[in-house]
Amino acid sequence: MQMDSSSNITTIDLTLPTADAQTSSSNDDKISCTVKTKIGRHGLEQYYEDFKEYNAGDLKGKTSAICILCKEMVWHVKGSTSNYYRHLQRKHKPEYDLWSKNESQKKNENKLKQISLEDSLSSSSHTSKYGSSHHRQVELTKMVFENFIIGLDLPLSITEKPAFIQAMMIVDPKFRVPSRRSIASDYLPKIHEQITNKLKHVCSSADFVSLTFDGWTDRRMRAFYAITMHYIDHMGQLKAHLLAFNPLSGNHTGENLFMEYDRVSTAFSIGNKVVRLITDNASNNLSAFGELVIPGFESYFITEDDTEGSDDNDDQNEINLNVSEGHPPDDDEEQRKPELVLSMKDLAVLREFISIFTLLVEATNRTQAEQCVSISLVAPSVLGIYYDLENELKLCKYISSLCNALIISLKERFGGLLLNLGIPVDDHIKRRSTFHLFSDDIFLISSFLDGQFRLRWILQSPLSQDIKNRLCDKIKRIVAQAAFQVYDSVSNVQTADGAQPETTSTAIDNSQSGGKNSYDNSLTPKRKSLFAYYETSPMPPKKNAY
Questions:
Q1: What does each C-alpha distance from 42 to 71, 99, 181, 395, 493 come to in angstroms?
Q2: Which UniProt keywords apply (predicted)?
Q3: What span, in angstroms and rounded, lies between the C-alpha atoms of 64 and 76?
Q4: In a domain, 541, yes or no
Q5: Residue 142: CB partners within 8 Å, gap ≥ 6?
Q6: Whole-model pTM?
Q7: Is the pLDDT confidence value at 277 over 80?
């Protein structure tokens, strides 16, 4: 019996003395084995007998044992016992479950117990600790609070974790780690007071400040607001400090928000230094600060009577505290300039721009949607945009050159796809490096497999009827071929199974072709849309569920 000092595990020699172990040899002296009474360290000997370990001959390096339950001989290599408990698992399930349960209980009992907080402290109780006012105790406590809790954003409970306490004992055995309660009741208020005094000193030295006000609700429906100060110091550097981050109680009305702002501005004595207050465009913020005039700055405020010119899409609404330059503007001088009025031609140009880019914007938004399969949108989108640009080219009066440039660019980028759709493309465009990027049949297959398209995007397109028929037959053919390829990759397809995809394709063709006459091509949506046929046309009756 040997003791491993590194792991504290007792190792028992399984070789029995001469009295207990028997060495047997065959008549031809080719097989030599040793009979043992233990099978590893897992208690398997209760289910096996005649455990032998072969030392020479053809079976050298192997072991064998006879199962007591079924009398079957189980073989395995020397130094491993997996075959023996695998035999129990396969042939004797109840006995295996009982053996596995007993082994699990033994492992749990042998696990090292986690060191408790009391044990970790008692182990070093003989070491004298620093006093609360000792400079080393104060230094390490400040380090824990500022570097770990504040710097690394760790919870206060980290100071009560046994691993953290032991780590600090290595740093200094005399250091007494502060508890979570002492940090929250003693150190935290002191640090907060020190920072508040520094912020007040900064506010008093700043000449002018700007404030950003933001309020929100967390997942637990608790409301908070934050006020941040922005200023330029005497060195010309832009600085920003958080003045308040407090819970917001009561209704979020404009009056309550203004009271919170007034309380913070009074506490830091910045009420007469604010030149700009920035909030979001929520109605309660507008009602709270919309009429705010800083005392002493009345002559610097610009009053805006015309609110129609404001940008409704701005994410932030800046309360206009701009300092005016020069004499106050005259209404006739600023607001009645004829060059600022759009002419009829300008409006017509804008309308043409909007009409040209409407479908491009829609396609961009659809393909950028999250959790949405976008590959099926490529072919219908490109086909719809192409014919829309061709139609706009005939109608445009001012920006026909832009429309023609977009058509050429579309052919250069998606020429391979357009060629597959039966749209002619000039030879000089085919030489472009980007021409064949979208020529793969996968773009036709994916659109066919998408339930919102199928073949409808072809049947409702301005393509000629002959091209529609040939294109539908082509898509059904390549879909069937792709289905066979997928099926062949899994198993060998029998000859009788080859007719199944053809039947399905015929059913789909009848459904699509029979329903195309039910669509009213004369219907024009009020607003141009990329897939207007899908949004406005009724669904054809299904003859076969595909």
A1: 20, 9, 48, 87, 50
A2: Metal-binding, Nucleus, Zinc, Zinc-finger
A3: 6
A4: no
A5: none
A6: 0.35
A7: no
CA dihedral angle for residue 471, residue 473, residue 477, residue 478, rounded to 10 degrees? 10
Instruction: Give 73's strand partners.
Output: 66
Distance of CA 226 to the CA centre of its chain: 27
Contact in structure between 349 and 398 (CB atoms under 8 Å):
yes
Q: Which two tokens stand for residue 260?
A: 């919170």
Q: Dig out the tokens for 73 from the structure.
A: 């001989």
Q: Is residue 328 located within the same domain as residue 444?
A: no
Do 392 and 246 lie in a common domain?
no
Position 135: which residue type? Answer: H
Query: Residue 164's domain spans which residues?
Result: 117-193
Q: Is residue 542 part of a domain?
A: no
Residues 292-304, buried b or exposed e (16+ Cβ, 10 A)? eebeeeeeebeee
CA gap 392, 395 in Å, rounded:
5
Determine contact, residues 33/54, Cβ cutoff 8 Å. yes
Do 333 and 356 touch, CB atoms closer than 8 A? no
Check residues 324 and 171 and name the one with the higher pLDDT: 171
Q: Are 99 and 153 found together in one domain? A: no
Q: What band does 442 get if pLDDT is binned at 50, 70 and 90?
A: confident
Domain count, the chain: 4
